[in-house]
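Work Package 3 (structural annotation) set out to generate three-dimensional models for the target panel prioritized at the project kickoff. During this period the team completed the workflow that converts sequence records into discrete structure tokens, so that structures can be stored uniformly alongside our sequence database. As a representative example, we reproduce one entry of 237 residues exactly as it appears in the project archive.
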Amino acid sequence: MTDLPYTVLSCAMSLDGYLDDSSGNRLVLSNAADLDRVDEVRARADAILVGAGTVRADNPRLLVRSEHRQARRVAEGRGPSPLKVTVTRHTSFDPSAAFFTTGNCDKLVYCATGSVPGTRDRLRAVATVVDAGSDPSVVAVSEDLATRGVRRLLVEGGQNVHTQFLTLGLADELHVVVAPFFVGDSRAHRVVGDGPFPWNRGRRAQLMEVRRIEDVVLLRYALSDRFAEDESAEVVA
């Protein structure tokens, strides 16, 4: 992992552990103050990754919103917003989605080999399509991002992507924001799916920070030894 980007997983969930509901509409779990915190986390990243399902369902922009944070990045010799990244096995992206059309930043689509020609035809004008092999893996994606100079990666979901990064031990840090309500709908997606997680009842993740942000709570966990080496880590006793 030492050669891979320092990877932060970020998510918001309901009290019963759901990322969304089954309505088909985006469920807002956070609040304005926490969204501003997330904006700072984004501003410090080199790339933001979401799964293809998140691009299709939520139509996220994935941009740094604050003008002064954009200006800080530019002063550091970077673009106003991080590189946008997604992973897919299919070609069913809408090239007019906000992921592709917003922001003065590059967009990378890691795609299964069989879908590369169709995806390149569809997205040629809005994104760079990368052949990620017959079965795209977040390991291969992380390795390739490292060769492109990505040192800090922010992963914002959804369920399948979070599950892969966690079960493969690729996450260095986890941010979980808990919203003060229940979803109560088993048709909705939880934060992760089933899998052999390295953190279980025999190996507890290390809680590094608990922060109340108005009506939500941020829980920040260290998931690797690299957490202490990250200059941004703020351990709260």
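The mean pLDDT is 93.
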